[in-house]
Amino acid sequence: MFYHRVVTCHLIGHDLALPLDLETQHPGEGEVVAAKRLLERVFNQYGRFFDAVAGDGLYLEAPFLNFCIEHGKHVVAVIKDEGRVLFQDAQGLFASLPPVTWQEGNTTVDAWDEEGFNTMEGVEKPIRVLHTQEQTIKRERIKGRWETKVEHHTWWWATTIPKSLLPSRRLWAAGHKRWDIENGAFNQLSANWALDHCFKHHPKAIVNFVLILFITFVLVQCFHHRNLKPQLRRLLTLIGLVSQIHQSLGKQGLKPPWHEPESKRPP
pLDDT by residue (tens digit) across 144-196? Predict the structure, then answer.
């Protein structure tokens, strides 16, 4: 079985799933190294599209934070390592402070948010830490009966964004929006757009296929969300629209190049 690893940059916080670019990981190379190559290109081409880079705990390291700071971008990253001095300092401080509480739908959020931490060695800016404890009430129908359960989640984020630019509630929302890349892009593209199928095991072919897929995905979303009337969108999902496009191409007798014998394929 083959695995081709890539790092993808995805614009979050919109009603469209917007993958911008990707970079392949070289053999034996870490994800962050490939991500920095990708971001060099993204900062140059899409620099005005966003003000901060959001990532998981892997990106909470001084070289990456300084790299983004040097390019005029903030960073939001998950804190996963409880052995970090930054985590221990924030945990000790928050233990003596009352939380700020708000309600977001069925979720109650208790939040602790402080800035000015200087315990990440090598980072050029003080770090802000946001910690939340969340309780979400969910109703599920089990064996014909509605049952209510409460889910508990705990989160820790570190960021270079000061409170004056982004309040706690919006930082919390941005931290959770990072999952847009999984829910809105990767899951849908893998399940319905053949992202997980490698048509040709060649580095350039893989990159070209995925980039063309990204362009097609964004264009179809734009047509569905921006062009169709609301009444029609309620009846026709995005996947339903793609299915109709696919069927219409079949009726015209058009075939994708990989369905043709190799001798008849375009060079």
Answer: 788 888 899 999 999 999 999 999 999 999 999 888 788 778 888 888 888 88
Neighbours of 225 (CB within 10 A): 13
Fold assignment, 6-187: Transposase Inhibitor Protein From Tn5; Chain A, domain 1 (3.90.350)
Nearest 10 degrees: Cα torsion 9, 48, 77, 40: 60
Q: What are phi and psi of 97, to 5 degrees?
A: -115, 145
**Closest to 128 in 3D by CA, of 141, 139, 138, 119:** 119
Which are the contacts of 39, defined by CB distance < 8 A and separation ≥ 6?
Answer: 9, 53, 67, 68, 71
Domain boundaries, the chain: 6-187, 200-264
Neighbours of 133 (CB within 10 A): 15
Token output for 140: 């599920």
Quick: pLDDT tens for 81-132: 887 899 999 999 999 999 999 999 999 999 999 999 998 888 988 999 999 9
- The whole-number pLDDT of residue 219 equals 93
Sign, Cα dihedral of 141, 146, 149, 151 = positive
Gap between the Cα atoms of 29 and 31, Å rounded: 7
Rounded distance, CA 28 to CA 181, Å? 24
Tokens of 208: 């070209």
3-state secondary structure of 66: helix
Assess contact for 154 and 133: CB atoms under 8 A: yes
